[in-house]
Protein backbone atom coordinates (compact mmCIF):
# COMPACT_ATOMS: atom_id res chain seq x y z
CA UNK A 1 0.00 0.00 0.00
CA UNK A 2 2.83 2.39 0.87
CA UNK A 3 4.51 1.58 -2.42
CA UNK A 4 1.33 2.48 -4.33
CA UNK A 5 0.95 5.76 -2.46
CA UNK A 6 4.59 6.65 -3.05
CA UNK A 7 4.25 5.88 -6.74
CA UNK A 8 1.12 7.97 -7.00
CA UNK A 9 2.80 10.94 -5.31
CA UNK A 10 5.80 10.57 -7.60
CA UNK A 11 3.54 10.54 -10.65
CA UNK A 12 1.69 13.64 -9.45
CA UNK A 13 4.97 15.49 -8.86
CA UNK A 14 6.21 14.58 -12.33
CA UNK A 15 2.97 15.77 -13.94
CA UNK A 16 3.05 18.97 -11.90
CA UNK A 17 6.65 19.55 -12.85
CA UNK A 18 5.86 19.07 -16.52
CA UNK A 19 2.97 21.53 -16.24
CA UNK A 20 5.25 24.07 -14.56
CA UNK A 21 7.91 23.64 -17.26
CA UNK A 22 5.55 24.31 -20.15
CA UNK A 23 7.17 26.37 -22.86
CA UNK A 24 4.73 28.69 -24.62
CA UNK A 25 5.01 29.17 -28.36
CA UNK A 26 3.85 32.38 -30.05
CA UNK A 27 0.78 30.67 -31.50
CA UNK A 28 -0.17 29.31 -28.06
CA UNK A 29 0.24 32.75 -26.49
CA UNK A 30 -1.91 34.41 -29.14
CA UNK A 31 -4.67 31.81 -28.83
CA UNK A 32 -4.62 31.84 -25.03
CA UNK A 33 -4.70 35.65 -24.87
CA UNK A 34 -7.70 35.85 -27.18
CA UNK A 35 -9.56 33.28 -25.09
CA UNK A 36 -8.67 34.64 -21.64
CA UNK A 37 -7.96 38.35 -21.94
CA UNK A 38 -10.15 40.41 -19.57
CA UNK A 39 -10.84 43.08 -22.18
CA UNK A 40 -12.15 40.40 -24.54
CA UNK A 41 -14.39 39.04 -21.79
CA UNK A 42 -15.73 42.55 -21.17
CA UNK A 43 -16.65 43.10 -24.83
CA UNK A 44 -18.16 39.62 -25.02
CA UNK A 45 -20.61 40.79 -22.35
CA UNK A 46 -21.44 43.80 -24.53
CA UNK A 47 -22.17 41.38 -27.35
CA UNK A 48 -24.54 39.45 -25.08
CA UNK A 49 -26.31 42.73 -24.24
CA UNK A 50 -26.73 43.43 -27.96
CA UNK A 51 -28.39 40.04 -28.40
CA UNK A 52 -30.78 40.85 -25.53
CA UNK A 53 -31.63 44.17 -27.23
CA UNK A 54 -32.61 42.20 -30.32
CA UNK A 55 -34.93 40.03 -28.22
CA UNK A 56 -36.50 43.19 -26.75
CA UNK A 57 -37.13 44.57 -30.24
CA UNK A 58 -38.80 41.36 -31.41
CA UNK A 59 -40.91 41.24 -28.26
CA UNK A 60 -42.24 44.74 -28.94
CA UNK A 61 -44.03 43.40 -32.03
CA UNK A 62 -45.88 40.75 -30.05
CA UNK A 63 -49.17 41.32 -28.17
CA UNK A 64 -48.85 41.94 -24.46
CA UNK A 65 -51.00 40.02 -21.97
CA UNK A 66 -51.70 40.91 -18.36
CA UNK A 67 -54.15 39.90 -15.64
CA UNK A 68 -55.21 41.25 -12.27
CA UNK A 69 -57.11 39.97 -9.25
CA UNK A 70 -58.38 42.01 -6.32
CA UNK A 71 -60.44 41.36 -3.19
CA UNK A 72 -61.85 43.80 -0.64
CA UNK A 73 -64.26 44.14 2.26
CA UNK A 74 -66.37 47.19 3.13
CA UNK A 75 -68.48 47.90 6.23
CA UNK A 76 -71.21 50.53 6.28
CA UNK A 77 -72.57 52.32 3.27
CA UNK A 78 -70.81 50.92 0.22
CA UNK A 79 -71.35 50.34 -3.48
CA UNK A 80 -72.14 46.76 -4.46
CA UNK A 81 -69.88 46.18 -7.54
CA UNK A 82 -72.24 43.55 -8.96
CA UNK A 83 -75.45 45.65 -8.83
CA UNK A 84 -74.01 49.19 -8.59
CA UNK A 85 -76.45 49.82 -5.71
CA UNK A 86 -75.56 51.50 -2.44
CA UNK A 87 -76.10 49.14 0.47
CA UNK A 88 -75.48 49.49 4.17
CA UNK A 89 -73.81 46.23 5.13
CA UNK A 90 -70.53 44.43 5.30
CA UNK A 91 -69.64 43.50 1.74
CA UNK A 92 -66.95 41.17 0.56
CA UNK A 93 -66.20 41.51 -3.14
CA UNK A 94 -63.65 40.27 -5.61
CA UNK A 95 -62.83 41.02 -9.23
CA UNK A 96 -60.51 39.76 -11.92
CA UNK A 97 -59.54 40.84 -15.40
CA UNK A 98 -57.30 39.89 -18.30
CA UNK A 99 -56.27 42.28 -21.06
CA UNK A 100 -54.17 42.25 -24.17
CA UNK A 101 -53.06 44.92 -26.63
CA UNK A 102 -50.96 45.09 -29.75
CA UNK A 103 -49.43 47.84 -31.85
CA UNK A 104 -50.58 47.45 -35.44
CA UNK A 105 -48.67 50.35 -36.95
CA UNK A 106 -46.20 52.85 -35.52
CA UNK A 107 -44.46 54.22 -38.58
CA UNK A 108 -42.40 50.99 -38.82
CA UNK A 109 -40.46 52.02 -35.72
CA UNK A 110 -40.69 48.59 -34.08
CA UNK A 111 -39.65 46.90 -37.31
CA UNK A 112 -36.68 49.24 -37.67
CA UNK A 113 -35.75 48.65 -34.05
CA UNK A 114 -35.49 44.93 -34.82
CA UNK A 115 -33.27 45.66 -37.80
CA UNK A 116 -31.18 48.01 -35.69
CA UNK A 117 -30.79 45.38 -32.98
CA UNK A 118 -29.52 42.93 -35.60
CA UNK A 119 -27.03 45.50 -36.87
CA UNK A 120 -25.97 46.29 -33.31
CA UNK A 121 -25.20 42.63 -32.62
CA UNK A 122 -23.13 42.44 -35.81
CA UNK A 123 -21.33 45.70 -34.95
CA UNK A 124 -20.47 44.44 -31.49
CA UNK A 125 -19.08 41.26 -33.03
CA UNK A 126 -16.90 43.34 -35.35
CA UNK A 127 -15.72 45.42 -32.40
CA UNK A 128 -14.92 42.27 -30.42
CA UNK A 129 -12.97 40.82 -33.35
CA UNK A 130 -11.12 44.12 -33.75
CA UNK A 131 -10.10 44.00 -30.09
CA UNK A 132 -8.83 40.45 -30.66
CA UNK A 133 -6.78 41.66 -33.62
CA UNK A 134 -5.13 44.31 -31.44
CA UNK A 135 -4.43 41.74 -28.73
CA UNK A 136 -2.79 39.42 -31.27
CA UNK A 137 -0.42 42.19 -32.36
CA UNK A 138 0.32 43.21 -28.77
CA UNK A 139 1.05 39.60 -27.79
CA UNK A 140 3.31 39.15 -30.82
CA UNK A 141 5.22 42.32 -29.92
CA UNK A 142 5.58 41.29 -26.27
CA UNK A 143 6.64 37.76 -27.25
CA UNK A 144 9.30 39.05 -29.65
CA UNK A 145 10.52 41.42 -26.94
CA UNK A 146 11.12 38.47 -24.62
CA UNK A 147 12.98 36.65 -27.40
CA UNK A 148 15.08 39.73 -28.11
CA UNK A 149 16.03 40.11 -24.44
CA UNK A 150 16.85 36.41 -24.15
CA UNK A 151 19.08 36.53 -27.21
CA UNK A 152 20.83 39.62 -25.85
CA UNK A 153 21.49 37.78 -22.59
CA UNK A 154 23.15 34.92 -24.46
CA UNK A 155 25.39 37.38 -26.27
CA UNK A 156 26.35 39.14 -23.03
CA UNK A 157 27.19 35.83 -21.36
CA UNK A 158 29.31 34.77 -24.31
CA UNK A 159 31.13 38.10 -24.23
CA UNK A 160 31.80 37.70 -20.50
CA UNK A 161 33.19 34.22 -21.09
CA UNK A 162 35.66 35.63 -23.63
CA UNK A 163 36.65 38.43 -21.26
CA UNK A 164 37.22 35.95 -18.44
CA UNK A 165 39.59 33.99 -20.69
CA UNK A 166 41.46 37.20 -21.49
CA UNK A 167 41.59 37.98 -17.76
CA UNK A 168 43.12 34.61 -16.99
CA UNK A 169 45.73 35.06 -19.71
CA UNK A 170 46.48 38.64 -18.65
CA UNK A 171 46.95 37.60 -15.00
CA UNK A 172 49.59 35.16 -16.11
CA UNK A 173 51.32 37.88 -18.15
CA UNK A 174 51.17 40.31 -15.22
CA UNK A 175 52.64 37.74 -12.86
CA UNK A 176 55.45 37.09 -15.30
CA UNK A 177 56.09 40.85 -15.64
CA UNK A 178 55.28 41.02 -19.35
CA UNK A 179 52.18 43.19 -19.01
CA UNK A 180 51.57 46.11 -16.66
CA UNK A 181 49.07 45.63 -13.85
CA UNK A 182 47.00 48.51 -15.22
CA UNK A 183 46.00 46.37 -18.19
CA UNK A 184 44.64 43.74 -15.79
CA UNK A 185 42.64 46.32 -13.89
CA UNK A 186 41.16 47.61 -17.17
CA UNK A 187 40.04 44.11 -18.13
CA UNK A 188 38.56 43.55 -14.67
CA UNK A 189 36.54 46.77 -15.10
CA UNK A 190 35.36 45.50 -18.49
CA UNK A 191 34.29 42.19 -16.94
CA UNK A 192 32.43 44.02 -14.16
CA UNK A 193 30.61 46.10 -16.75
CA UNK A 194 29.64 42.97 -18.65
CA UNK A 195 28.35 41.37 -15.47
CA UNK A 196 26.20 44.46 -14.94
CA UNK A 197 24.92 44.08 -18.51
CA UNK A 198 23.93 40.50 -17.72
CA UNK A 199 22.05 41.58 -14.59
CA UNK A 200 20.25 44.33 -16.52
CA UNK A 201 19.42 41.89 -19.30
CA UNK A 202 18.00 39.38 -16.80
CA UNK A 203 15.82 42.14 -15.35
CA UNK A 204 14.61 43.09 -18.84
CA UNK A 205 13.70 39.46 -19.50
CA UNK A 206 11.72 39.32 -16.28
CA UNK A 207 9.88 42.57 -17.05
CA UNK A 208 9.08 41.54 -20.63
CA UNK A 209 7.84 38.14 -19.40
CA UNK A 210 5.62 39.90 -16.87
CA UNK A 211 4.18 42.11 -19.61
CA UNK A 212 3.48 39.08 -21.80
CA UNK A 213 1.94 37.12 -18.91
CA UNK A 214 -0.35 40.05 -18.10
CA UNK A 215 -1.62 40.11 -21.68
CA UNK A 216 -2.41 36.42 -21.24
CA UNK A 217 -4.01 37.02 -17.78
CA UNK A 218 -1.51 34.57 -16.26
CA UNK A 219 -0.64 35.24 -12.62
CA UNK A 220 1.86 32.40 -12.10
CA UNK A 221 4.78 34.49 -13.35
CA UNK A 222 7.47 32.31 -11.81
CA UNK A 223 6.54 29.25 -13.85
CA UNK A 224 5.72 31.13 -17.06
CA UNK A 225 8.26 30.57 -19.80
CA UNK A 226 8.28 30.85 -23.57
CA UNK A 227 9.73 28.24 -25.90
CA UNK A 228 13.52 28.18 -26.08
CA UNK A 229 13.86 28.76 -29.80
CA UNK A 230 16.03 30.95 -31.94
CA UNK A 231 14.29 32.62 -34.84
CA UNK A 232 16.00 33.71 -37.99
CA UNK A 233 14.52 36.23 -40.37
CA UNK A 234 11.37 34.46 -41.65
CA UNK A 235 10.98 34.19 -45.41
CA UNK A 236 8.24 36.40 -46.86
CA UNK A 237 7.19 37.66 -50.25
CA UNK A 238 4.84 40.29 -48.83
CA UNK A 239 6.83 43.08 -50.51
CA UNK A 240 5.97 41.57 -53.89
CA UNK A 241 2.65 43.37 -53.34
CA UNK A 242 2.42 47.13 -53.42
CA UNK A 243 1.13 49.10 -50.43
CA UNK A 244 -2.01 49.90 -52.45
CA UNK A 245 -2.74 46.20 -53.04
CA UNK A 246 -2.24 45.43 -49.33
CA UNK A 247 -4.53 48.31 -48.37
CA UNK A 248 -7.25 47.23 -50.82
CA UNK A 249 -7.03 43.70 -49.43
CA UNK A 250 -7.23 44.96 -45.84
CA UNK A 251 -10.40 46.88 -46.68
CA UNK A 252 -12.17 43.60 -47.49
CA UNK A 253 -11.64 41.87 -44.14
CA UNK A 254 -10.37 44.25 -41.46
CA UNK A 255 -12.74 44.32 -38.48
CA UNK A 256 -12.11 47.98 -37.70
CA UNK A 257 -13.38 48.85 -41.19
CA UNK A 258 -16.42 46.61 -40.77
CA UNK A 259 -17.13 48.13 -37.36
CA UNK A 260 -16.93 51.69 -38.72
CA UNK A 261 -19.20 50.79 -41.65
CA UNK A 262 -21.72 49.18 -39.27
CA UNK A 263 -21.72 52.49 -37.37
CA UNK A 264 -23.00 54.21 -40.52
CA UNK A 265 -25.71 51.58 -40.96
CA UNK A 266 -26.78 51.92 -37.32
CA UNK A 267 -27.01 55.70 -37.65
CA UNK A 268 -29.11 55.33 -40.79
CA UNK A 269 -31.45 52.95 -38.99
CA UNK A 270 -31.76 55.43 -36.10
CA UNK A 271 -32.74 58.06 -38.67
CA UNK A 272 -35.51 55.80 -39.99
CA UNK A 273 -36.75 55.22 -36.44
CA UNK A 274 -36.84 58.98 -35.82
CA UNK A 275 -38.81 59.57 -39.03
CA UNK A 276 -41.35 56.93 -37.96
CA UNK A 277 -42.49 59.22 -35.14
CA UNK A 278 -44.15 61.48 -37.76
CA UNK A 279 -46.76 58.85 -38.56
CA UNK A 280 -49.89 57.86 -36.57
CA UNK A 281 -49.75 54.95 -34.17
CA UNK A 282 -52.54 52.38 -34.49
CA UNK A 283 -53.23 49.73 -31.87
CA UNK A 284 -55.90 47.23 -30.84
CA UNK A 285 -56.97 45.92 -27.44
CA UNK A 286 -59.24 43.34 -25.82
CA UNK A 287 -60.24 43.03 -22.16
CA UNK A 288 -62.11 40.38 -20.19
CA UNK A 289 -63.33 41.05 -16.60
CA UNK A 290 -65.60 39.50 -13.99
CA UNK A 291 -66.57 40.15 -10.36
CA UNK A 292 -68.10 38.63 -7.21
CA UNK A 293 -69.99 40.00 -4.20
CA UNK A 294 -71.37 38.16 -1.17
CA UNK A 295 -74.40 40.53 -1.33
CA UNK A 296 -75.38 39.39 -4.82
CA UNK A 297 -78.53 37.27 -4.30
CA UNK A 298 -80.80 35.36 -6.63
CA UNK A 299 -83.86 37.63 -7.29
CA UNK A 300 -86.23 34.63 -7.22
CA UNK A 301 -84.99 32.65 -4.24
CA UNK A 302 -83.19 35.40 -2.33
CA UNK A 303 -80.27 33.03 -1.80
CA UNK A 304 -76.67 34.22 -2.40
CA UNK A 305 -75.44 33.32 -5.89
CA UNK A 306 -72.48 30.88 -5.71
CA UNK A 307 -69.00 32.24 -6.38
CA UNK A 308 -68.34 30.38 -9.65
CA UNK A 309 -71.80 31.25 -10.98
CA UNK A 310 -71.22 34.93 -10.32
CA UNK A 311 -67.93 34.77 -12.23
CA UNK A 312 -69.90 33.56 -15.24
CA UNK A 313 -72.89 35.89 -14.80
CA UNK A 314 -70.92 39.06 -14.09
CA UNK A 315 -68.23 38.73 -16.76
CA UNK A 316 -67.80 40.98 -19.77
CA UNK A 317 -65.55 41.60 -22.74
CA UNK A 318 -64.45 44.91 -24.22
CA UNK A 319 -62.39 45.39 -27.34
CA UNK A 320 -61.54 48.06 -29.80
CA UNK A 321 -58.88 49.98 -31.69
CA UNK A 322 -57.18 53.29 -31.10
CA UNK A 323 -55.15 55.74 -33.12
CA UNK A 324 -52.75 58.39 -31.90
CA UNK A 325 -51.98 61.13 -34.43
CA UNK A 326 -49.00 63.45 -33.75
CA UNK A 327 -50.04 67.02 -34.50
CA UNK A 328 -47.68 69.26 -32.56
CA UNK A 329 -45.09 68.23 -29.99
CA UNK A 330 -42.85 71.25 -29.64
CA UNK A 331 -40.75 70.26 -32.69
CA UNK A 332 -39.30 67.33 -30.75
CA UNK A 333 -39.86 64.89 -33.65
CA UNK A 334 -38.36 67.29 -36.17
CA UNK A 335 -35.35 67.96 -33.95
CA UNK A 336 -34.81 64.25 -33.29
CA UNK A 337 -34.76 63.67 -37.05
CA UNK A 338 -32.16 66.41 -37.47
CA UNK A 339 -30.04 64.94 -34.67
CA UNK A 340 -30.23 61.51 -36.29
CA UNK A 341 -29.16 62.97 -39.64
CA UNK A 342 -26.19 64.61 -37.95
CA UNK A 343 -25.30 61.22 -36.42
CA UNK A 344 -25.39 59.67 -39.91
CA UNK A 345 -23.03 62.34 -41.23
CA UNK A 346 -20.76 61.92 -38.23
CA UNK A 347 -20.66 58.12 -38.69
CA UNK A 348 -19.77 58.54 -42.37
CA UNK A 349 -16.94 60.88 -41.45
CA UNK A 350 -15.73 58.37 -38.85
CA UNK A 351 -15.82 55.63 -41.48
CA UNK A 352 -13.72 57.71 -43.87
CA UNK A 353 -11.30 58.54 -41.03
CA UNK A 354 -10.95 54.84 -40.24
CA UNK A 355 -10.15 54.08 -43.88
CA UNK A 356 -7.60 56.90 -43.99
CA UNK A 357 -6.01 55.67 -40.77
CA UNK A 358 -5.81 52.14 -42.13
CA UNK A 359 -4.19 53.41 -45.33
CA UNK A 360 -1.70 55.39 -43.25
CA UNK A 361 -0.94 52.38 -41.07
CA UNK A 362 -0.44 50.11 -44.08
CA UNK A 363 1.85 52.60 -45.81
CA UNK A 364 3.79 53.12 -42.57
CA UNK A 365 4.11 49.36 -42.05
CA UNK A 366 5.25 48.96 -45.66
CA UNK A 367 7.94 51.63 -45.24
CA UNK A 368 8.94 50.19 -41.84
CA UNK A 369 9.50 46.73 -43.29
CA UNK A 370 11.82 48.13 -45.95
CA UNK A 371 13.69 50.53 -43.65
CA UNK A 372 14.05 48.10 -40.74
CA UNK A 373 15.38 45.40 -43.05
CA UNK A 374 17.96 47.85 -44.38
CA UNK A 375 18.82 48.78 -40.78
CA UNK A 376 19.23 45.06 -40.00
CA UNK A 377 21.54 44.57 -42.99
CA UNK A 378 23.55 47.64 -41.98
CA UNK A 379 23.83 46.35 -38.41
CA UNK A 380 25.11 43.00 -39.72
CA UNK A 381 27.76 44.72 -41.84
CA UNK A 382 28.76 46.87 -38.88
CA UNK A 383 29.06 43.79 -36.67
CA UNK A 384 31.17 42.05 -39.28
CA UNK A 385 33.50 45.03 -39.51
CA UNK A 386 33.66 45.45 -35.71
CA UNK A 387 34.41 41.74 -35.28
CA UNK A 388 37.29 41.88 -37.76
CA UNK A 389 38.62 44.98 -36.01
CA UNK A 390 38.29 43.22 -32.67
CA UNK A 391 40.24 40.19 -33.91
CA UNK A 392 42.97 42.48 -35.16
CA UNK A 393 43.03 44.32 -31.82
CA UNK A 394 43.14 41.05 -29.91
CA UNK A 395 46.14 39.87 -31.88
CA UNK A 396 47.93 43.13 -31.09
CA UNK A 397 46.86 42.97 -27.42
CA UNK A 398 48.08 39.37 -27.06
CA UNK A 399 51.59 40.35 -28.18
CA UNK A 400 51.65 43.56 -26.14
CA UNK A 401 51.22 46.01 -29.02
CA UNK A 402 47.93 47.43 -27.66
CA UNK A 403 47.04 48.56 -24.18
CA UNK A 404 44.03 47.17 -22.31
CA UNK A 405 42.01 50.40 -22.61
CA UNK A 406 42.10 50.42 -26.40
CA UNK A 407 41.42 46.70 -26.44
CA UNK A 408 38.38 47.07 -24.17
CA UNK A 409 37.08 49.84 -26.43
CA UNK A 410 37.32 47.51 -29.42
CA UNK A 411 35.46 44.86 -27.48
CA UNK A 412 32.81 47.36 -26.39
CA UNK A 413 32.20 48.33 -30.01
CA UNK A 414 31.62 44.67 -30.85
CA UNK A 415 29.21 44.35 -27.92
CA UNK A 416 27.21 47.35 -29.11
CA UNK A 417 27.18 46.04 -32.69
CA UNK A 418 25.86 42.64 -31.59
CA UNK A 419 23.14 44.29 -29.48
CA UNK A 420 22.17 46.45 -32.47
CA UNK A 421 21.87 43.37 -34.71
CA UNK A 422 19.50 41.75 -32.22
CA UNK A 423 17.43 44.92 -31.83
CA UNK A 424 17.05 45.56 -35.55
CA UNK A 425 16.38 41.87 -36.22
CA UNK A 426 13.36 41.67 -33.94
CA UNK A 427 12.15 45.13 -34.92
CA UNK A 428 12.14 43.96 -38.53
CA UNK A 429 10.37 40.68 -37.69
CA UNK A 430 7.61 42.52 -35.81
CA UNK A 431 7.08 45.06 -38.61
CA UNK A 432 7.01 42.23 -41.11
CA UNK A 433 4.31 40.44 -39.10
CA UNK A 434 2.26 43.64 -38.89
CA UNK A 435 2.36 44.09 -42.66
CA UNK A 436 1.47 40.42 -43.24
CA UNK A 437 -1.38 40.77 -40.75
CA UNK A 438 -2.81 43.63 -42.82
CA UNK A 439 -2.68 41.26 -45.78
CA UNK A 440 -4.66 38.60 -43.93
CA UNK A 441 -1.73 36.31 -43.03
CA UNK A 442 -2.05 34.85 -39.48
CA UNK A 443 0.67 35.71 -36.96
CA UNK A 444 3.36 33.02 -36.96
CA UNK A 445 7.15 32.91 -36.73
CA UNK A 446 7.47 30.02 -39.15
Automatic annotation (TrEMBL):
Which InterPro entries would you find in this protein's record?
A: OMP_efflux, TolC-like
Q: Does the keyword Transport apply?
A: yes
Its domain of life reads Bacteria
Q: Where in the cell is it found?
A: Cell outer membrane
Q: Which family does it belong to?
A: Belongs to the outer membrane factor (OMF) (TC 1.B.17) family.
**Any one Gene Ontology cellular component term annotated for this protein:** cell outer membrane
Keywords assigned: Cell outer membrane, Membrane, Signal, Transmembrane, Transmembrane beta strand, Transport
Signal peptide positions (record): 1-19
What phylogenetic lineage does the species belong to?
Bacteria, Pseudomonadati, Bacteroidota, Flavobacteriia, Flavobacteriales
The record's annotation in PANTHER family points to: OUTER MEMBRANE PROTEIN TOLC
Primary place of residence? membrane
Q: Carries keyword Membrane?
A: yes
What name goes with this protein?
Answer: Outer membrane protein
The Gene Ontology terms for molecular function here are: efflux transmembrane transporter activity; porin activity
Matches recorded under Pfam families: OEP (PF02321)
Amino acid sequence: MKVKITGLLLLCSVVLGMAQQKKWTLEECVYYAVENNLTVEQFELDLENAKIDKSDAVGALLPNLSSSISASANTGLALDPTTNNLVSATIFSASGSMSSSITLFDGLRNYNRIERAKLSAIANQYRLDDIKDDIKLNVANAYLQVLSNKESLKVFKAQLAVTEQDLKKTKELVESGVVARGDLLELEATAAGQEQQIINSQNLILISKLNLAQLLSITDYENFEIAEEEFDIPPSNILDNSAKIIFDTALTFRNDIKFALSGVELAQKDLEISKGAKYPTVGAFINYNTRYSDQNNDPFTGEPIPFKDQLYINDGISYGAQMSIPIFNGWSVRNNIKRSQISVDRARIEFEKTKLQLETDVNQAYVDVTSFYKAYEAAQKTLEARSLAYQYSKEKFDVGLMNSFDFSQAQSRVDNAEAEVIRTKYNYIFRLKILEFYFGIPISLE
